[in-house]
Amino acid sequence: MPVPSSPDQWCVALDGVTKSFGSTHALDSLTLRARRGAITAVLGPNGAGKTTMMEICEGLQRADGGRVRVLGMDPASDAVHLRPRVGVMVQDGGLPVMALALELLEHVSRMYARPRDVGELADSLGLHAFARTSVRRLSGGQRQRLALAIALVGRPDLVFLDEPSAGLDPQSRLAVWELVEGLRQDGVSVVLSTHLMDEASHLADHVVIIDHGVLIAEGTVAGLTAPAASGRVRPAAPSGTTPSAVTLRGELTPEALGSLHEWAREHGLAVDATPATNEPAPRTLEDVFLDLTGRSLR
Predict the structure, then answer these.
(1) Is the C or the N end of the chain the one with fewer CB within 10 Å?
(2) Same structural domain for residues 243 and 173?
(3) Whether pTM exceeds 0.90
């Protein structure tokens, strides 16, 4: 995927972001990008820093260091301007437990100047079946659907979804996926964290994998799961006698490709990875994830 030359191409841009909780380094000079109008999936083991990264972007936490930009603004100092444009679905929902499901959604919708039609949103997520049920009595999957509706009702330009399919049955998961795909068609940017590799494979335009608070790989699903490739690095623009391309030979693992992408971005280059011929069939995203992060329990 070519590297855009304009910062306006990014809905989220993190540069050297750090965050610690006591002696635990949740984020360690994390640098990553999420493209506007696309779905970016953030993968990583438990404790990798995904939720911390999302909460910093949402303005729920402050970074200790580095630069954070969301829709071109600082989520810490520009929160008043960002809130109407950003939808947030957090892991635990954070919903008032005594509120009735549909009344809560209607209440939140009235906070926005141009909300989505509540009835239509409730139809798409099957909320009418538990409309008069208090949040306290909802199942985990029902809370997830309500939390997603609340994140979307304000017609945000950017949506952060933290484990949107956690606890959902297959029918609900498909409904959520269709809704998320519809957001992309409407030009809405989506950043989602997930442990479900099939969810990332199905939805994501771009995947970033983080572990121990750093980016370890990124790319399209096809690029990350392709067989070993020879990489070609092309300058983003001609520059005199500079070579127009450099070919790298040998096994280009997803980890090496991620490092190459980062180096190329720093130097204004684009990476064109062309799969070699007569190679094994592509691996799954889960294979790549386990190769990069290990198979031991944490």
Answers:
(1) C
(2) no
(3) no
